[in-house]
Amino acid sequence: TGYADSLRADAYRGDVGGPEQVDCPDAVTAKARELAAMLRAASHAVVHTGAGISTAAGIADFRGPNGVWTAEAHGRPRPASVAFAAARPTLAHDALARLVGQGVVKHVVTQNVDGLHLRSGVPRARISELHGNVFKVRCPRCQREEYRDAEVGSVGLKPIGEPCGRGRCRGVLRDCLLDWDDPLPTRDLRDAWAHGRRADLSVCLGTSLQMVPSRDIATQGKQKRGMRLAIVNLQATEYDDIADLVIHARIDEVLAIVMAELHGNHGDAGPNDIVHSNTPLELLGDQNSSQAKTI
Fold first, then answer.
1. Which of 48, 93, 131, 248 is catalytic?
2. What's the whole-model pTM score?
């Protein structure tokens, strides 16, 4: 919630606090197996993630019944939340990393700033972090990116008072964490749109599909060219009616079944079906980028 405290207080938060619903166990199993079949058949699957994928790691969401923005709207204390640095990738994060590594998922587009996709092993080139990363700094001059173990501590793409340190570059490092209305990172946004245009399957995990342009990137192909759309979320979204598949269940539960189905284990799936990883951010090191300056 320290991140939420740093954001502008006067920005519109969207619709918050909608009721959650959970499909019956048999329906979850059947729908998860259908999702596995959709992934198997897709030639260019793209996964879009929101705060709901990280709640199993102890990080509070924003618009759920007990979310940060929901509590704020109702004058309640904000929910307890694990510090980003203490959070660990969930079963769902690790499942996605495996699917990316196996080429089943071509790209991940996330609104999350917690760095858990990178820690789970998703390569930097295969993810678009549209809202930034609390652990990342960037030099606006040479575009070098650096990941740190501790949160950078500022929001709004501000200079942090440290020189770039790359060769003769005289740039000054900035945080990479967006505030409301800050421009999205050029490379991440470009890659997200490019993969969104190519996608024949868009899988949305733990997002209310309210944020722009994230929701447009995730859904554009459905309306324009018949892309298949799957949504896994405990709350209803305004895109449920046009989706090919909607699953109201916890994401870890769904992806455990999906992974078992894709890998030939048709028994009961559980957390032990996926080996968890936790790549320290310091091992990600410097990430050189050829992107243009932020728009």
1. 131
2. 0.89
